[in-house]
Structure formats: C-alpha cells, structure tokens
From TrEMBL, chain A:
It is a multi-pass membrane protein. This is Amino acid ABC transporter membrane protein 2, PAAT family. Keywords: Cell membrane, Membrane, Transmembrane, Transmembrane helix, Transport. Residues 1-20 are annotated as: Disordered. The keyword Lipid metabolism does not apply. The lineage of its organism: Bacteria, Pseudomonadati, Pseudomonadota, Alphaproteobacteria, Sphingomonadales.
Automatic annotation (TrEMBL), chain B:
This is Amino acid ABC transporter ATP-binding protein, PAAT family. PROSITE patterns: ABC_TRANSPORTER_2. It comes from the Bacteria. Belongs to the ABC transporter superfamily. Keywords: ATP-binding, Nucleotide-binding, Transport. GO terms for molecular function: ABC-type amino acid transporter activity; ATP binding; ATP hydrolysis activity. The keyword Nucleotide-binding applies. Pfam families: ABC_tran. Residues 2-236 form the ABC transporter domain. InterPro entries: AAA+_ATPase, ABC_ATPase_HisP-typ, ABC_transporter-like_ATP-bd, MetN_ABC_transporter-like, P-loop_NTPase.
Length: 362, 241
C-alpha cells in the first residue's frame, strides 16, 4: 500500500543507441543500389574526362592560337579577367573601380560582426557609397568623368546589390507595415504595389524601366540607364522583402504589442525596439533566400545593356583573336557568384544561431 | 483615483461589460473575481485603454481614458500592468526588459535606468538573473520580472490580469509573495485572480463579476462569510471542494 523511497535511483549514462548508417538509404534495396551504381559509374567515367579537359589538356599560358584544338582555355580568362571584372571602364583609370571594389568589400566585411552594428557603421557606409560613386563617375577632384554606360563588371554587381538592399530593405519594411495597417488607403496602396511588382518578371520590369521610362518622364528630366535599372531593382526587391517581413510580423505574438503599449511606450519605440527586431529575427531564414536571389538578380541587367559581371563575361567572348571558351568563362563567373552568395548564406546562418536571444537556449 | 461610470463594452454583438460603475481610492487594494468570460479582464484592460469602452466614462485622476494616443501614453505611464502570459520581450535581457521603458518614456539615462532596474530586480529577488534572456527563466521568475518591469515606471496604479494562472503550482507562491509585499507599500492595486487565499489576505474590497456585470462587492470578510447574491454563493460553493 504505502511506499516511501529510501535510496535515490542513481543517474546513469544513456545506453548506446544504434546509429543510423549514413549510407543506408543509398545502398539498401535493389532500386536504391541500382541508382547509386549508375551514378557512381557515370562519375567514374566523367571525372577523368573532366580532368583531362581542365588540367592535362588545359592551356594556362599563351594566346588565342595556343587554345585551338586544346582543352580548357584558362589563358583566355587570365587575359580577359580585368575586362570581366571591370568591363569597358577606361583601362588607364582602372585603379578607380579596383579601389571601389576594395572600399565596398572592406565596408561589407567590417559590418559583419554584430558589435559593429552602430550608427558609426551606418555613417561609414554613407561615406563608402559616396566615395564609390565619386570614384566611378569622376568629373570632380581632378578625376576624368566616366559615363555610367562605361561602368561595368564587379563594381556594377556590387553597387546594384548594395543599393537594392539598402533602399529595398527600409522600403520593404514600410510596405509590410502599410499592408498590415488599419488604414485602408495604406493597405490598398501597399498591396497593389507588392502584388504588381511580384507578378511582373524582373526582366519585364527592367525593360519597362529602360524603354518606357523615357516616355513617361516629363520633358527635360532624364535618368540614365543605370539609375532606371536601379529603381526597378529597388522596387522589385522591396516587394519581396515586404512579404518576408510581413510573415515575420505575423509571428510576433499580439501580447508583445500589448505589453509594450501598456508600459506607455510610443508607437515608434514599440515598432523599432520591440516588434521589428523580433519579426526580422523570425524571418531571417527566408530573408536570406530573398537576399541571395537579389544578389543573383543583378545579373539580369544584361538585358538592358549594362555590363555587370555576367554580361561583361559574355562580351569578352566576342574577341575574334580567341576561340570561344564558354564553359570556362561561365564556370568562373558562377564561382564568383557562388563565393558571394554562399558566404552570405553561411553568415546569415551564423546570425540565426547567435541572435536567438534565449529563444533557443545556448 | 479611478472613476468608472456606466461603462459598456461590446465585442461585435456580445455585450461584454454592462453598465459598470466603480470608484477606487488611492492606495486601495481590489481583487476582481468571477467565472471565466465574466468580463474581469475586459474591465481592467479598459482602465489603461488596451480595450476601448463603447459607452460611459473612465477617469484616472484627472485624465479621461479616450482613444487618443498622447492621452493613452500618459495614462499608461502612470498605470502598470502585469499579464497572464508575462509578455516579456524575448529578444532583450531581463535587465533590458526593465530598463527600456524608463529610458524611452521617462527619459532616464541608461545608467540611471539600469540602476533602477537592478534595484527592482533585487526587490523581486531575481537580481542574479539580470543578464539572462526570458526563455532561460522559469515561469515564476519571468512573472516576477514582469512585475519589476511594470514597477520600473513607478506607476501609481498596478493592474494584474490573472498573474498566476499560467504558472506551475510550485511557482504560484513566489509570485503571490511579491504581490503581497507590494500590497503593503501603498500602491493602488487591481488584481484579477482566482487565488482566493490572496484575496482574503490582501484585498480591501472584493468585486465579484458575472456576465459583464458587477454582481457584488464587499470586504473579504463579508464576501467569504456572508455572500448576499445567489450567484456569488453558487460561485463560492463551487470553489470549496
């Protein structure tokens, strides 16, 4: 009937659990084994072929003639890399885009640690962007002017991405808030803008910006191709960011807003200190995808004749002095994009892990 | 201190508060009880304007509660509130949770706000947890933080909306002990709770609500030993099991 414990049950280490073999799902069973075998056989045949193309018969030095009837023409990329990276920017002034890439790259790296997320860093970005535009455009401080139509390659990719994010992010947040507003006018306007921007392919939007805008702008007002493309990018980015942020906002419990208001906090404090930090944290994973898409989308400017990384690569293939090593060129450009995008994705994952603020225990 | 006259509130067609009138004196300790859905929470949420009343008048001192942002902000700075689900800010540390409003609303410098926050965390006996995040604390510790957060605004009135209903039985006492200590310090308290022991010990007046109306009010002694209204008697008889 009655039971009273006399000695505590000892705490013991967990018994060994059977490990799930990592390979089981690809080697067990007939169909799985067959599929695996086919893929492995294919790889065994493909790898030597690839190596012979890329390494054994690859041409690393020399000119166009050395590349004929050989394997991979890496020499072409060595010769054309400055053009791919900096486009048709005047060669004598090439130090300027190089400096811009270094400035923007350094500002990006500086901004990564959370301890650097301060007003000063924001100011630093302002300086970096003004300096970059000044260096690229020239016309002041004794720098010779270079029209935006001659800008190209990596600086264009970086500037487009940075502007898309720096302007698209605040605009996206405003759109997300407006779409959730009690005021019908705000709600309808934001919804219309978001839905139109999302429903239109970015390529179409770029064509509209580049071809239609001159017709729509009042006489005397002109905007160059780069600015028009930039506007299209910012609008499109903000629509996607708005929807992701809206998802995050929906994940913040209503009690947060209530308790913040009950403390007497003003509307902007409730929003900036309580609601948005939580919403963005919740939306970090989909936000990363959106940002990576925005980075890659910058390559679409080739349809309106701007020389970003990808279009500069394509143009470099037109040189009659060389054979046309498409595969090598695209492979290298793909690698540059991969490094940027994968780097960003890893960084975002790191943020996700370290900024949970106790929601996930450390 | 609090004056409510003829207050009515509807959720759609549902009549949630029916002609509620109530006056609370400075320093008075009120416990509001009654079955779920009787309008207790709605009543105290109308006091700091988290719910908008549809008719009648609510005044906090000289300020009339009305849907005007500035007026509401001013009133809320004077009226603290503690929620059933704590509603701490999960992305801020315990200390930051308590220091935020004094900085942003009362304009204290960070140092002063944090010193005040530490002092209050000491008072709710949780100072050693100041640098943790809410999710790392037990429910009882979180609710004590929420009390410290409300007190950091140095309010004249504090509203409790079922502060122990979401707690494990073992943690109810630690929160009630803090509330009892607070009750001896002269702050005006309105507390919605099912803790009848607390009501009996602390309240100056008990308000019993049912179906959006105040059914009976009285001292704890009268309320528990000589309930007058039939509905009150039915409620009390079901509590003693």
């Amino acid at each position: 009937m009655r039971y009273v414990r006399t000695a505590p049950e000892p705490v013991r280490p967990a018994p060994p659990r059977p490990k799930r073999p990592a390979l089981r799902s690809i080697v067990s069973g007939g169909a799985n084994l067959l599929t695996t075998a086919i893929i492995v056989l294919f790889a065994i045949r493909a790898v030597p072929h690839l190596l012979s193309w890329a390494v054994t018969h690859g041409v690393w030095n020399g000119d166009g003639d050395a590349c004929r009837d050989a394997g991979a023409c890496w020499a072409f990329l060595r010769a054309k890399m400055p053009f791919i990276l900096f486009g048709i920017y005047p060669e004598a002034e090439r130090w300027r885009p190089i400096l811009v890439v270094l400035i923007l790259g350094a500002a990006t790296l500086w901004s990564l640690p959370r301890a650097h997320w301060t007003r000063a860093t924001l100011g630093l970005w302002g300086v970096a962007i003004v300096a970059s535009l000044l260096l690229m455009a020239g016309g002041r401080l004794g720098l010779s002017p270079v029209p935006t139509s001659a800008w190209g390659g990596l600086p264009i990719t970086m500037l487009l991405t940075i502007f898309s994010l720096a302007l698209g992010f605040p605009l996206g947040i405003v759109l997300a808030l407006a779409r959730r507003s009690d005021m019908p006018v705000y709600r309808w306007t934001a919804t219309a803008l978001i839905e139109v921007m999302r429903a239109m392919p970015l390529v179409t939007l770029l064509f509209v910006a580049s071809v239609m805008a001159p017709l729509l702008l009042p006489a005397g007002v002109t905007a160059d191709n780069l600015t028009r493309a930039l506007v299209a990018f910012v609008l499109s980015s903000s629509a996607y960011i708005a929807e992701v942020v809206r998802g995050g906002l929906q994940g913040v419990p209503p009690g947060q807003q209530e308790s913040a208001r009950a403390l007497g906090l003003g509307r902007s404090t409730v929003l900036l200190s309580i609601i948005l930090p939580q919403a963005i944290r919740k939306a970090l994973a989909p936000l990363t995808s959106t940002v990576v898409v925005i980075i890659k989308n910058s390559s679409l400017v080739l349809v309106v004749g701007l020389f970003d990384l990808l279009s500069a690569g394509r143009v470099s293939l037109n040189d009659p002095a060389w054979p046309t090593p498409y595969a090598e060129t695209y492979l290298v450009i793909a690698l540059i994009y991969f490094v940027i995008c994968y780097g960003f994705a890893r960084y975002a994952l790191h943020l996700e892990r370290t900024t949970q603020g106790g929601e996930r225990r450390p | 201190m609090i004056h409510m006259a003829g207050v009515g509130k509807w959720y759609g067609d549902y009549h949630a508060l029916r002609n509620v009138s109530l006056d609370v004196a400075r320093g008075e300790r009120i416990v509001i009880c009654g079955p779920s859905g009787s309008g207790k929470s709605t009543l105290i949420r109308c006091i700091n304007g988290l719910e908008t009343h549809d008719e009648g008048v609510i005044r906090i001192g000289e300020d009339e509660v009305r849907p005007d942002r500035r007026v509401l902000q001013r009133i809320r700075a004077r009226v603290g509130m503690v929620f059933q689900d704590f509603n701490l800010f999960p992305h801020l540390t315990i200390l930051e949770n308590c220091a935020l409003a004094p900085m942003k609303v009362r304009g204290l410098a960070r140092d002063a706000a944090e010193a005040l926050a530490r002092e209050l965390l000491e008072r709710v006996r949780i100072a050693d947890q100041a640098d943790k995040y809410p999710a790392q604390l037990s429910g009882g510790q979180q609710q004590r933080t929420a009390i410290a957060r409300a007190l950091a605004m140095q309010p004249e009135i504090i509203l409790f909306d079922e502060p122990t209903s979401a707690l494990d039985a073992e943690m109810v006492k630690e929160v009630l002990d803090i509330m009892k200590a607070l009750a001896t310090e002269g702050i005006t308290m309105l507390c919605v709770t099912h803790e009848m022991g607390f009501a009996r010990e602390v309240a100056d007046r008990i308000i019993f609500m049912d179906a959006g109306q105040i059914v009976e009010t009285g001292s704890p002694h009268d309320f528990f030993t000589a309930p007058c209204h039939e509905r009150t008697r039915a409620f009390l008889s079901r509590l003693l099991y």
